[in-house]
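re the bet — no i am not wrong, look at it urself. input seq straight from the record:
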Amino acid sequence: MIYLSQQDPLIARLIDEEIKRQQEGLMIIPSENHVSKAVLEALGTVLTDKYAEGYPGKRYYAGNAVVDKVENTARDRAKKLFGVPHANVQGYSGSPANLAVYLATCEPHDPIMGLDLLSGGHLTHGWKVSATSLFWKSLPYHMTVDGHEDLNEVREIARREKPKLIWCGGTAIPRAIPFKAFAEIADEVGAYLAADISHIAGLIAGGAHESPVPYVHIVSTTTHKTLRGPRGALVMVTEKGLQKNPELGEKIDRAIFPMLQGGPHMNTIAGIAVMLEEASQPAFKEYTKRVVQNAKILADSLVTHGFKLVSGGTDNHLILMDLTPSGPGRGLFLHLALERAGIYANKNTIPNDPSSPFYPSGLRLGSPAATTRGMGEKEMKQLAEWIKRVSDHIANVRMPADKEARQEVIKKFKQTLEADSFYSDLQNEVRELCLTFPIPGV
């Protein structure tokens, strides 16, 4: 970063600090990953200079001969990788991509269904603080006590309310999504079925998770997470979707542009194209197998250490720890304590969480980034042991029921983290391990 260091030393220094944090720490947040050097190079090119409103062959500016080829390459690669007839690669991120699905399939205030956020769904699937619940009638379904989608509830709501759109997928689902069962319900009531595969898209591309393509009408996904690409989005229409509505692909495209967005980020689309090429290689298929293997090893190791997991384990890259045996709100404390030691997980709600979403009782873990670095069984078992040590170290910490008392306890807890040599010693252990597994791209 020679030029950046000269032009803006502050930003250059902050980027170096982030590189150091990633290299010396362990990212186990399931929605994070490390991109390749090739993807980073594509992102930092003159393609960022080009304004390209519209679509290939139908732009509103001159000079698009090259970027048309870039976008067409990304679209073709997405269609081939996922086996779909239509793909839009312009979405800035997952949320506007999902909003485009609504605009292509629903009228204002139509009933829609999605997994409740506290059960593992996403904000854009109709959660009450999202604009999606303001513009459409949201009818959430939930997880069962054993951590699976409550298909009986889905069927009951769908038959009663006749939703226009049903979402499957979410952000904290450790088990395989039953796409076929959702399709049977959606087909019965005449609803569009959209699969948000943002978390598992890479696993699907690599054959480590069943594809929703034969069952759903629309597939949306972010392009980072398990795909290891830049932060963008894909919205894809399946053959089944075109059979239901031959204009569905055109409706998706119009929803992205001009209804929601202006000019696409061509440097990001180039990065997406590079990622899609990487994801089509045999090495990526092996990577996704290792992601699932590592997650299962980590899950089994946590259970061996006495931890409770939502659904008892995992079928994919994601583990959701149920920490209620140690008291409600425990997820926040373990999240903060692990971060102090250089282990980055995230607090998360669990089904039927007795605590507030701001002080959840779960911890969400994932294996994608660690697997990208080359970690395997030995490191997953070591990670579980570290989590156990940290959990035991804070065993006496409890979340008060009183809101004012909560803030004081959290404040004091954060203060003790900085002064406690236990975390400094553990951070040194984490750093020593992580430095033997360099992050790609830097």
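see?? The mean pLDDT is 97. told u. also Residues 282-304 form the longest helix (23 residues). so pay up
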